[in-house]
Amino acid sequence: MASVLSIDGERQSGEDVRTQNVMAAQAIANVVKSSFGPLGLDKMLVDDIGDVTISNDGATILKQLEVQHPAAKVLVELADLQDKEVGDGTTSVVLLAAELLSRANALVKKKIHPTSVISGYRLAMQEACKYITDVLAIKNEALPKDVLLNAAKTSISSKIIGGEEAEFFAHLAVDAVLRMKRVDEKGEVKYPIKSINVLKAHGKSAKESILVPGYALNCTPSSQAMPKRLTNAKIACLDFNLNRERLGMGVAVLVTDPSKLDAIRERESDITRDRIKMILKSGANVVLTCKGIDDMCLKYFVEAGVMAVRRVKKEDMRHIAKATGATMLLTLANLEGEESFDSSFLGHCDEVVQERFADDELLLFRSSKVRSSSVVLRGANYFMLDEMERSFHDALCIVKRTLESNAVCVGGGAVDTALSIYLESFARTLGTREQLAVHEFAESLLVIPKTLAVNAACDALELVAQLRAHHHTSQSDKTKPEYAHYGLDLTSGKVRDNLIAGVLEPAMSKIKCLKFATEAAITILRIDVMVKLNPKQEPQRGEDY
Fold first, then answer.
1. Which residues on adjacent β-strands are paired with residue 365?
2. Catalytic center residues
3. DSSP per position, 335-372
4. Which one of 133, 141, 268, 296 has the fewest beta carbons within 10 angstroms of its own beta carbon?
5. Torsion of CA 444, 449, 455, 456, to 10 degrees
6. Which residues of 93-238 form beta strands (DSSP E)?
7. pTM of the full predicted structure?
8. Which DSSP string corresponds to 179-205?
9. pLDDT (tens digit, 9 = 90+) per residue, 100-122?
């Protein structure tokens, strides 16, 4: 019952607030439900100023929605967390969390205390993660390239670049990530995919996208008279203006002799000229700045045969500085208060060359020591290019996670069904109330294969029944372990061995999905009272304040 408190607000408690939270979570899940899986549909989102976004990525769709309900916001943040941590599986994590909540609410209505449901869910989640790690995860110390390709293809299959182009983009993603291999101070192998520069060029078909060896910068030299190609480049990365020095705002100079005006103007020019000479004296032959370079300063660079580039994005500048070993400078001032530029601030690169891709001129930074890569995506329109970029980013994340976790599991609803069968038998071994919660957790996991089948216009009941039969056989009959790899084939509407078919995803992705969905469901389930404060009345003009 809603009741007015002594504070200016409204209070809801017990079953009312819990049911309301579950309905809000279900509403959020229903928005993205039809976009799940390789045959899911896209959503068109139009914002308040008319900008259009067409996507079937769960995190992107939910970010665009202006959600007001506090429980629904938890699911939006959940999708965002999955996107940051894993890069893919945002829709499945929201669907699972909403299903867990719905079933938990049904248990609470049967007079089972929320604390018992929460402890049962936690126990089921721990058992599920352990079962994935010990049984379902396929470990491979030296992952062959086709495993990476299959993982990338599985991620891409549900996107706009799925279908015929899936093989092409999977190769592109794997090659781009493998070029980024680094070994850190601890001896761990890392793949910093943030350093892969993805550029979009309008026109041609998606299959004419290319992988460029080196870091591609969407800028050109500031003058046509500058060289188009430099070998053994020494790069200065600056974040200040190389314009003629002017007096600051509010600074006034009183001059009694008019002839001294020219001397002041000349000194203003000399300050910038001295800075440029200082940079050139260190041996720099490529100068990048985030700010501007005026014509007077360009003259000095052209005379010295140096390539100067202005208005470089700060993000690009940071990546180039990291790849070449340069130091990004905000000022030339040193600790003594004087200006200096040391050669140790310079980055080194084998070659900097200006090349033409599509209708744009790009600068390529190539180095044999630090390998970097860029991808130029082509597409018919900007909506398609934006969605291609999101899809390609998901594929890059999945390849990175597969390489770093060194373990994959079978997709197509295989893991979810196997966990459901395992947890059902595990629930029977419990002699406490948690048994009911574990059983409901097991039932909730089937929402993944059911939604996949429904979105592919297949008979969900029949396919899920076949899947359950296969996985029950694999767990009860030790002579048929291959049945554990059976999942859905949505094209033909049958079940098949998805390990042979190459439908794979990182084991880490599935484990994080289960953990995040369970924690989100528990967070909302713990709420039993909601106090909503009334908005404060603004005093009208003329009233006593």
1. 215, 352
2. 57, 90-91, 394
3. TTSSB---GGG-EEEEEEEEEEETTEEEEEEE-SSS--
4. 141
5. -170
6. 138-139, 182-183, 189-190, 197-202, 210-213, 215-217, 229-238
7. 0.83
8. TT-EE-TTS-EE--GGGSEEEEEEBS-
9. 999 999 998 888 888 999 999 99
